[in-house]
Structures are given as structure tokens and as C-alpha cells.
Amino acid sequence: MKYLVIFHTFSGVLYLEKYMKKHGLQYETMPAPRELSIDCGVSLIFTHDNLEEFIESINTENIHRIYIEESKHLVFENN
């Protein structure tokens, strides 16, 4: 499934890009949709089979929200 990540800070984008490269995961960065972004303004789209496993393997400190990319359904929120 494809997911859309919204970040608190740009350093969160850099961290997740580095993580994705290190683990050979495909991703794309792009401007965050205005209706979903409140902080950083950059989003990252990736595909993964098990979101819970992915979330457990990363530092979520600078991730604000994760949505299903197509439907924009919220699946993770970090206040």
C-alpha cells in the first residue's frame, strides 16, 4: 500500500530519506498537500506491506501524520 508522510520538521524528512536509502526502499518527496500540512511543507510517499512494522522500525519523533496516499485516510498520528 502507498502511504503519505507529513512531517513536523524538515530534519524529519532528511532522517526518513536516509532510512529509506539505507534499507533500499523506494520513496518520493514532494510538496505536502496544503489541506494536510501544518508544519514542514514537505511530504514523502512510500510503499510498504506492513505499516505497523515500518513504524516500529523508525524514529517517529518528527513525523506528524501518515495517511493512505490515495484516500488520504489517517493511519498514524504523532502529536
In whole angstroms, how far apart are the ends? 24 Å
In DSSP terms (H or I, runs of 4 or more residues), the helix count works out at: 2
The ordered H/E elements are EHEEHEE
**Judging from the principal axes of the Cα atoms, what is the shape?**
globular
The stretches of 5 or more residues where confidence is low (pLDDT under 50) are none
What do you see in this structure?
- There is one protein chain.
- Helices cover 25% and strands 34% of the residues.
- By secondary structure, it is of the alpha+beta class.
- A hairpin with a 5-residue loop joins strand 4 and strand 5.
- The longest helix is centred in the N-terminal third of the chain and has 13 residues, at 10-22.
- The chain is globular, with a radius of gyration of 11 Å.
